[in-house]
Amino acid sequence: MRSKIQAFGGFLTAMVIPNMGAFIAWGFITALFLQTGWVPNAHLAELIGPMLNYLLPLLLAYTGGCLIYDKRGGVAGAIGTIGLIIGADIAMFLGAMIMGPLSAWIVKKFDKLIAKKIPTGLEMVINNFSLGIIGFLLCISSFLFIGPLIEQANSFVSFLIQQLVKTGFLPTLSLVNEPAKVLFLNNVIDQGIYYPLGMQQTMDIGKSIYFMVASNPGAGLGLLIAYAMFGKGDAKQSAPGAMIIHFLGGIHEIYFPYVLMNPILILAMILGNGAGTLVFSLLNVGLVAGPSPGSIFAYLMLTPKGDFLGMAAGVLVAVIVSFLVASAILKASKETTDEQLQASREKSKAMKQEGKDILADTLGTDSAASSPAPIAASPIRFIAFACDAGMGSSSMGANAFRKKLAASGVELQVKHFAIENVPSDADVIVVHQNLVERARMASPDKRIIAIKTYMGDKALDAFAQEIIDQHNKEVQA
Predict the structure, then answer these.
(1) Which residues pair with 429 in a beta bridge?
(2) What is the predicted pLDDT for the residue at 191?
(3) Structural contact between residues 65 and 75, judged by C-beta atoms closer than 8 angstroms
(4) Could you list the active site residues?
(5) Which residue among 106, 153, 220, 234 has the highest number of C-beta atoms inside a 10 angstrom radius?
(6) How far apart are CA 140 and CA 401, in angstroms?
(7) At a CB cut-off of 8 Å and minimum separation 6, what does 135 contact?
(8) Is the separation of the CB atoms in 268 and 258 below 8 Å?
């Protein structure tokens, strides 16, 4: 179930991430030219509404359609979504992320149905008219029926969260956010819930706290500082580098393994993030767009005029609370030696194998098909680092691994991808151990290297040595 939810979050992310430049551009225009912005300009502020209501949802719909059925699916997604946009009184981000892929899926199924029935020479005519007719029906349906349903559902969710904000209980969302994040469900939360709500609130008041509820980098920094000071072995040694990657680079996935090593540390993340959100709420601060990646630099760039002190206070409080709680837990923890930690990891692997067996039964395959593939007999030429969005931790891991090989005189193709977009010609996939099941579902015939962290991971070091040994044998031959 978790792998399927992760895949859903990855799909949402694959729609959002390619368009983040457009979202950030809109955020800058809003922060600068809105009536309450840095340089208010009524004429330039006319860009804000059309970009929010038309450009951004249509980009999401087109991208989602392309993911399902290439450019033909993208066109179908845009046609189906424009009906939602025109028929609604709110920005249709959630609707676009539903209608875009759905429209593309319908066209794809229709094309498959008639693929062998098209007379020779009429392919272009039938393809164009079928897309036009289906698009027409989708547009009308979304305008009259689907749009109002999505608008009502969106309004209900918005009302619930707004009431939570008014009652002061917004920090309690950390009880859901933080466990979900360390299970690599963070993109489901951000791209699926908070970002769409944040864009709508920003249009009304020029900023939104929703962008900060799950993306605050403070709690993760506090946890990593605690590990650097009171951790043991590999965790202690790798924590300082992870701080830079997390807090400055905005790649939050880097701290997830540190929580999974000692699950009770989730308390530090919940309390730290909850305390930061409480400060944000009390000081009435927000961001003008979603910080992607969730770096402190992104926070600074997207903070509106007058909110810098409040933003800094919320981040700092999250750091302090998370650090204090994590430090107390690490000092009291008995699992501090590398040997004990390794035993815990082996137990985790056994539990994961049970999950793989269940997944195999669900998919109708045997457990052997779900186990890691043996070392390939043919030389390794193309290594794919994969993560949820293909932009954060996988990019960092691929760059570091490529440099490590280059330092030993080995030049191979090492690239980063979203899990579902790994090319078929990749020889090996490197992925975090919590994403192995999902990677296996997307690429069942590939060898997968499961790692626990992108810095100082023993499995990754062993794989690098395998590549180097392969290269040396080829040179000697």
Answers:
(1) 384, 448
(2) 65
(3) yes
(4) 387
(5) 220
(6) 51
(7) 75, 76, 79, 80, 103, 107
(8) no
